[in-house]
Amino acid sequence: MQRYIRDILLALLILPSAYAQTIKHTTANAHAHNDYEHPLPFYTAYYKNFGSIEADVFARNGQLYVAHNEKDIDSSRTLAALYLQPLRAMIKKNNGNAFKDGKPLQLLIDFKTDSVLTMQTLVQQLQQYPDITGNAHVQIVISGSQPLPAQWAQYPAYILFDGKPGSYPEGAIQRMPLFSYNFQEYTKWNGKGKMVAADEKRVQAVIDSVHQLHKKIRFWGAPDNVNTWITLAHMGVDYIGTDHLDELSNYLETRPTGEYQSTDNTHALYKARYVNNDKLSKVKNVILLIGDGMGLTEIYAGYTGNRGQLNLLQMINIGFSKTSSADSYITDSAAGATAMASGQKTNNRYIGVDATGLAHPPIPQLIQRYGMESALISAGDITDATPAAFYGHQADRAMEDDIAADFLNSPVSIMIGGGRLHFTQPLKGQPLTPQLQQKGYTVYPRFADLDKITSRKWLLLDDSAVVPVLKGRGDFLTRSLQKTIHTLQDNRNGFFVMAEGAQIDAGGHANNVPYNVTEMMDFDKAVGAAMEFADTNGETLVIVTADHETGGLSLLAGDIQKGYVSGHFSTNDHTAVMVPVFAYGPHSLDFRGVYENTALFEKIMKILSARK
């Protein structure tokens, strides 16, 4: 009595999808479609660790020729020469494994000629390759013009078959590790945007039905682009076929660093009250928050990772800053921060000096005349380019010992971050600690000391505290900002604080979406703390911006409710795109529009100079 697989599949269409959530796609899930048409058959896909390689064969005169059409047959391009011999060589090289790491390899052979004749020829040839046929790490799967399922039992057990829509006799299912379906029979989706709901349901049902049989599935005839690969991977397709080996390989290899899935680390928002927002009333305090490397896509990735909420996006006064430096279309942090700190376009790598090398006073120095105090905070080294531009004057950002020494001439009251050795053990010169103490500063080496600090002037320099969020930094940035505000808020003349989310930039340079998203979310916690103080105080202007965007991040897929985001970077360096400027509190309207990054300095100084 026969059991009809088609009936089983139809019955299983109603079962829910769970398998898709268990597949972790790597290049082992990549299928080299019509592999023989690539410039270097077998080896290109093999060295990219593709788990499945496809070859079409024609049987003729006792030989199997590899070609897409009969007219393309070339006597030198045989299955043995292009696939069997190279595979045997790799097995020998890997001590019996198809791949060095023991991963399996599927060789999908698509018959283009008579099934029985082609099978006879294949079995005869495979008898010469016992290291392939007897290898548990190699699967030989026959597709195309297959023998009838009733005949399968007469062929060696190492011969497996590709499943197709249809009915099969009982027992045949055991010889079918894979089902291959024509994508176009289920949807005409072109790979752009999102599949329509009805088609998506139909495709998912087919995938689920195959998985309920504990078999793998691939589609042929599917669009061959990143959006399709993402879609098929999320739906649980086991083998993703492609003619673009490099592109698919790159996508799959970068999936661990290209995707972020929220767990339990989302943060609640401060509920904005918009106290004196839009008003042109007195500004006593300015909090400038710089998300280093933060562009619009980084912001939206953080918004997605935090399941559809950011403190930052409650701000309603928004502008854009043009970031080019004096000598480059694309700025670095040194020139970008100098523009904001001193109002000067300068060359990349220059700190606190203009393009001619002339030093210019930064905001903390200029606001001394108003009796204001200043503080600088970074979730990275305090001697790095962005914070350095608010107190240092050097021709190269790499001169961090000299930048640290510049702090001796700065009026800044509080600094928090890493880079301790530049102050305590510089490579040249004497430690700065004694001179800092003479100037009334206390230097603290541990972030754990934060809540114990009672002095007015202090440095907290703890390199172990400024590791990435993913490595346990915790609420360093937010707590540092809150402590700084608490220390300075009783100055009747007000304060200026610059706090940097330094490692959003590092995530962009690393082309690492989880790194990028978690740093953005951490930065947003500090934004919420600044907004809360601004509402409580009523005389505090909060400005949030970036020095530049890093990585050229594109968002390819996401799910806001699940906190899932998939991205792709176009570079591991900075880009030239404009960056947003968000403002909150009195005079926040002044920051609307599109302007040069130097205008941030000009606007802040104009607002402070007009105080009554």
From TrEMBL:
CDD domains linked to this entry: ALP (cd16012), PI-PLCc_GDPD_SF_unchar3 (cd08577)
Entries under SMART domains matching the protein: alkPPc
Example GO BP: lipid metabolic process
Residues annotated for Mg(2+) binding in this entry: D292, D384, T386, E500
InterPro entries per UniProt: AIM6_PI-PLC-like_dom (IPR039559), Alkaline_phosphatase (IPR001952), Alkaline_phosphatase_AS (IPR018299), Alkaline_phosphatase_core_sf (IPR017850), PLC-like_Pdiesterase_TIM-brl (IPR017946)
Origin: domain of life: Bacteria
Catalytic residues (UniProt): S333
Signal peptide (residue range): 1-20
Pfam families referenced in this protein's UniProt entry, alphabetically: Alk_phosphatase (PF00245)
UniProtKB keywords: Hydrolase, Magnesium, Metal-binding, Phosphoprotein, Signal, Zinc
Cofactors (names): Zn(2+); Mg(2+)
Co-factor: note: Binds 2 Zn(2+) ions.
Annotated residues for binding of Zn(2+): D292, D505, H509, D547, H548
GO molecular function: alkaline phosphatase activity; metal ion binding; phosphoric diester hydrolase activity
Family: Belongs to the alkaline phosphatase family.
Designated name of the protein: Alkaline phosphatase
